[in-house]
TrEMBL record, chain A:
<feature type="domain" description="ABC transmembrane type-1">
    <location>
        <begin position="74"/>
        <end position="266"/>
    </location>
</feature>
<keyword id="KW-1003">Cell membrane</keyword>
<feature type="transmembrane region" description="Helical">
    <location>
        <begin position="186"/>
        <end position="204"/>
    </location>
</feature>
<keyword id="KW-1133">Transmembrane helix</keyword>
<feature type="transmembrane region" description="Helical">
    <location>
        <begin position="111"/>
        <end position="133"/>
    </location>
</feature>
<protein>
    <submittedName>
        <fullName>Sugar ABC transporter permease</fullName>
    </submittedName>
</protein>
<feature type="transmembrane region" description="Helical">
    <location>
        <begin position="145"/>
        <end position="165"/>
    </location>
</feature>
<dbReference type="InterPro" id="IPR035906">
    <property type="entry name" value="MetI-like_sf"/>
</dbReference>
<keyword id="KW-0812">Transmembrane</keyword>
From TrEMBL, chain B:
<dbReference type="InterPro" id="IPR035906">
    <property type="entry name" value="MetI-like_sf"/>
</dbReference>
<feature type="transmembrane region" description="Helical">
    <location>
        <begin position="288"/>
        <end position="313"/>
    </location>
</feature>
<feature type="transmembrane region" description="Helical">
    <location>
        <begin position="334"/>
        <end position="354"/>
    </location>
</feature>
<feature type="transmembrane region" description="Helical">
    <location>
        <begin position="398"/>
        <end position="418"/>
    </location>
</feature>
<keyword id="KW-0472">Membrane</keyword>
<comment type="similarity">
    <text>Belongs to the binding-protein-dependent transport system permease family.</text>
</comment>
<keyword id="KW-1133">Transmembrane helix</keyword>
<keyword id="KW-0813">Transport</keyword>
<protein>
    <submittedName>
        <fullName>Sugar ABC transporter permease</fullName>
    </submittedName>
</protein>
Length: 281, 433
């Protein structure tokens, strides 16, 4: 019996050591960039992980310099992210509601079409969308980004959301229908409250999209004061990453922080979202 | 007999709305009429140009006349304008057909002695019984213009010669060339060498990155889920961090960490007496690096997923295995693995398809570099999708890029459709859940 106990202890110790190593690997890059952002000087190289002195100058520079309009970019990004999130979630949710609750001609085909459309590489459509926005004179506007992000939302989200809505018992809305509720009312008063976990998941993914998109946003937003954070960041990286690493680090922390905090708080919901989309197709 | 239905049908073929007015649905008929008036006004002005444009793609380029530029036809603008007009026309035709059908249906109902709905009743009927179709038009229009139209446009581009340096408007025209672009891509030595090289690496990358993150995630999940490990939630929360950081940041940070000259990784290796490793600049090592970094990014997702599945495995299955005298490894092999694989198989294929298109992992980390001399505008770690990006935005070889996009689509579509069918069969089996 004692042999078994000893083996158990060895196994657990080994596992704990493994877990600690993994945790260091997971946390290290984040720690490194945070410490890099408060290090004086500009260089990427530092002798030790912990800097000898701390400074917030790099953060200050981001918000006060003329080349980096970080405050402005933050507001732009927030505006675009929130608007496209609201619009995108609404579109996705109503699409998946219709797909999940109604049986109509062409329903299966529409679902397959959605699936196929999601498979085209996004860059393929960039040029055409650019030209289309040019036709409507929407280039260099935030509205263009909001419309495009929101219009694209149902393509990715419908399947996951539909999978979730399918799990809400239909007897609930049938009962409401017998009581004379209209489709809109059923949607607002029954489906919506019950799909809160899914709503959060979708809202989060929709919110993060504009926050990190640096390719399409860069193509559309030409003037600096209209940029989003990701575009500004990308510009900073491609122009002088190696010459001013600590400034990059400060920018990176500022962009990553809100998203990371959101993700960590909502991780339980993310698991649910991921698995419900995965197993129910 | 059949009088109402034929009259209504013929009238609404003659002009939208007439059939409805004949059926005494005046408001509806009027709306249809107004719609048609707008439509005809628009198409009289535009349809002929659109057809001309789509066939010829413009006839006179911008030319220099006595020292000043005289604007000619810009093939690409013409193409997109024609495409938009034709899509409007298609929508118009669909509504026209719907109008005829509607008139006929109501005509039949009248013959059966029913009074046609008045306008308010029609609206109510639609909201109650045709809710899904009526509502879905909003997202459908968005998808039509921002997804379908661009895809059609890009597919069309693949059949033109729209590429730098010889066919870039406005000073030059673009023409239809049929399958020439595809032929060049697979058969012309300069292009095909790059294409097959990049394609093979894309597939290797997709397989390796999927397998490493999946089994890495499985191992970590099992590690956390062991009997006797305490603070499971804490471990999970810490290990999920790489997933929570936006990729644009984490990958750019990684690029700095793996920096050959100043990066901390080489610095630490230096303490152990290991010389500088060209993580991102040597073609082979760079490939290993991207897979390693992708593991860092991807393992947390798989871990989360598999941890979720592990909690759903019924305890009595393990107990039954223990009664039969199964060892820990046997329990894993007989109970855990099949259950996990069964539930996550669709995700595995989705991840594989996603990795073929994993733009961020490559573009942000290496940018496709190190450059390969015998490749056409591609580097050693370039995937098809990053190559496509470079061809479009840096080289303006639009036709080639579109052809590659179509090929990527075919590859991914075949996997996903296979996957989709499997998930459906999963659902019908109803074994799990």
């Amino acid at each position: 019996m004692s042999g078994r106990k000893a083996r158990n202890t060895i196994r657990l110790t080994a596992s704990y050591i493994m877990l600690v190593i993994l945790c260091i690997a997971a946390v290290y890059p984040a720690l490194w960039i945070i410490l890099g952002s408060v290090r004086p000087g500009k260089s990427l190289y530092s002798k030790t992980l912990l800097p000898e002195s701390f400074t917030l100058d790099h953060y200050r520079e981001l918000f006060t310099s003329d080349t980096y309009l970080f405050g402005q970019w933050y507001m732009n990004t927030l505006k675009i992210a929130i608007c496209s999130m609201l619009l995108g979630v609404l579109l996705t949710l109503l699409t998946s509601y219709a797909m999940s609750r109604f049986r109509f001609r062409g329903r299966k085909n529409s679902l397959s079409i959605l699936l196929v459309l999601g498979m085209f590489p996004g860059f393929m459509s960039m040029i055409a969308i650019y030209l289309l926005l040019r036709e409507f004179q929407l280039l260099d506007t935030h509205l263009a980004l909001i419309i495009v992000y929101a219009a694209g939302a149902p393509i990715g989200g419908t399947f996951i959301a539909k999978g979730f809505l399918d799990t809400i018992p239909r007897s609930l809305d049938e009962a409401a229908r017998i009581d004379g509720a209209s489709n809109f009312r059923i949607f607002w008063q029954i489906i919506l409250p019950l799909s809160k976990p899914m709503l959060t998941y979708m809202a989060l993914t929709q919110f993060v999209g504009p926050w990190v998109d640096f390719i399409f946003a860069k193509l559309i937003l030409r003037s600096k004061e209209n940029w989003t954070l990701a575009v500004g960041m990308w510009d900073m990286v491609s122009s002088n990453q190696n010459t001013n690493f600590t400034l990059f680090a400060a920018g990176a922390v500022l962009i990553a922080l809100p998203i990371t905090i959101l993700f960590m708080f909502l991780q339980r919901l993310l698991v649910d979202g991921l698995t419900s989309g995965a197993s129910k197709g | 007999m059949g009088r109402h239905r034929n009259n209504a049908t013929i009238l609404s073929i003659l002009s939208m709305g007439l059939g409805q007015i004949y059926n005494r649905q005046f408001i509806k008929g009027l709306l249809f009429l107004i719609f048609e008036a707008f439509g005809i006004f628009y198409f009289v002005n535009n349809l002929k140009d659109a057809l001309w444009g789509i066939v010829t793609l413009g006839e006179t380029p911008r030319t220099l006349v006595k020292g000043t530029w005289v604007d000619g036809d810009h093939s690409i603008f013409i193409m997109i304008q024609s495409l938009i007009t034709l899509i409007f026309f298609a929508i118009f035709l669909i509504i026209y057909v719907m109008n005829i059908r509607d008139a006929r249906k109501i005509g039949i109902e009248r013959e059966a002695g029913k009074t046609p709905h008045n306008f308010v009743q029609s609206v109510r009927y639609m909201l109650d019984y045709k809710f899904a179709q009526a509502f879905l038009t909003i997202p459908a229009i968005g998808i039509l213009f921002f997804t379908v139209m661009p895809i059609i446009f890009m597919v069309m581009l693949a059949f033109t010669n729209y590429s730098a340096p010889d066919h870039i408007p406005p000073t030059k025209l673009v023409d239809w060339v049929g399958f020439q672009t595809f032929k060049n891509l697979v058969a012309l030595k300069t292009w095909s060498h790059t294409f097959y090289g990049v394609l093979i690496w894309t597939i290797i990358w997709a397989i390796l990155s999927t397998v490493t993150t999946y089994f890495g995630g499985l191992l970590v999940a099992l590690l956390i889920n062991q009997k006797g490990i305490r603070f499971k939630g804490v471990w999970r929360t810490i290990l999920i961090l790489p997933y929570a950081i936006p990729q644009i940041i984490s990958l750019l940070v990684m690029r700095n960490m793996f920096n050959g000259q100043f990066g901390p990784i080489n610095q630490y290796l230096g303490y152990f007496g290991i010389g500088q490793i060209p993580w991102l600049t040597d073609p082979t090592i760079a490939k290993v690096t991207v897979i390693l970094v992708n593991m860092w990014v991807g393992i947390p997702v798989s871990m989360l997923l598999i941890l979720g599945v592990l909690t759903t495995i019924p305890k009595d299955m393990y107990e039954a295995a223990e009664v039969d005298g199964a060892t820990g490894f046997q329990k894993f092999k007989i109970v855990t693995m099949p259950m996990v694989l069964f539930t996550t198989a669709p995700t595995l294929i989705t991840q594989f398809a996603g990795n073929i298109n994993n733009f961020n992992a490559i573009f942000l980390l290496t940018g496709g570099d190190p450059v390969k001399g015998d490749y056409q505008y591609a580097g050693a770690t370039d995937l098809l999708v990053t190559w496509l990006y470079k061809l479009t935005l840096n080289q303006n070889k639009y036709n080639m890029a579109s052809a590659i996009g179509i090929i990527i689509f075919i590859i991914i579509a075949s996997f996903s459709i296979y996957n989709y069918r499997r998930t459906k069969s999963f659902k019908e089996e109803d074994m799990i859940q």
